[in-house]
Amino acid sequence: MLLHIFSYIDGIAIESIKPLTVGFLGPRGSFTEEAALKMFNDQGALLIPYPSIYDIFRAVENGEVEYGVVPLENSLEGSVGETLDMLAQTSVKICGETEVRISHNLIAKPGTRLEDIKIVLSHPMALAQCRSFIYTKLKNVKIETRSSTAEAVKECIERENAAAIGSELAARIYGGEILVRGIEDHKENYTRFIAIGNKPLDKGTDVKTSVIFTLRDVPGALYKALEPFAIRGINLTKIESRPIKGRPWEYMFFMDFNGSIEDSKIRDVLEEFIVRTTSVKILGSYRKIP
Predict the structure, then answer these.
(1) Which of 91, 213, 218, 255 could form a disulfide with 239 if both were Cys (CB 3.0 to 4.6 A apart)?
(2) Does 193 participate in catalysis according to the annotation?
(3) Dihedral in degrees, nearest 10, Cα atoms 210, 215, 220, 224
C-alpha cells in the first residue's frame, strides 16, 4: 500500500511516495518482527521497532504509524495480559491476525563451542519453553533473563562464553551462529499476533470478530449472554476473563467468534447479546493471514 503525495514546484507536479508504516514489538529480530513481515512485507511497509506493547498502541492511536503488530496469545502459555488491557483501554481495532511457529535456537558468537558456554540469556518465556534442553545439555550454566529474545541474541554476540535463546531471524540480523536448532520442549508452539489500527486488512481468510464485554454479578449472567450465539449456531473460538484495573474482583470478558459484523446473522445476535450485558466493545472483524 503506497500513499501518493503531490507537491507543486513551478507548476510541475512532483510525486513523492510514502510507505505504509507499521510498528512492532522490538528490537529487530523478534518473533513479532517475523509476524509483521508475514502480514506486511508484500506491501513494502516500513517496519519500526517499539520497546513495549504500550508504546505500539499509543503510536497507532497518535498516528505515528498506521498499524501495529503485537502478540495476543501463545498456544502453551496463554494470553498476553498487556495486549488485552490495551485493547480494552484504547480506541484501536483489530485489523488482522497471523500465527508464527515459535522455534527456539541456541545462538552464540561465531566460533563458540557448546562446552564453552558459561551463561545463557533470553526472555523468561523462552527459557521456560526450553527448560529440558537447558537442564540436560547446559548443566551448571548461569541463566539470566532479558526483555526479549532478540535483545539477548544481540548481547551474547558481543560476549565471550555466552549464548542466547532466540530466533533464526535474530541470528541472521546480529551475526550469530546457531549452535543447536529447535531446542524448545514442545514443537507445537505457536503465537497468535494481531495487527492493530483503524482499517481492516483487505487480505486473508476465515473472518473472525472479537469483543470485550462486562456483565452484572448475578447467577447465570454469562450463560444468558452467550445463549443467542448457541441458538444461532455461531461458534465461539475463544473466551476468557480478565481483571478490570482499579476495580478489585470485577472482570471483563474477551471473546472471539466466527463471522463478520457485516453479516446480518451476526448483527442480529449482537443486538440480543448487547441487551444481556452491561457493556460491549467491538474490537473488529478481521481475517487470518496464513
Answers:
(1) 255
(2) yes
(3) -50
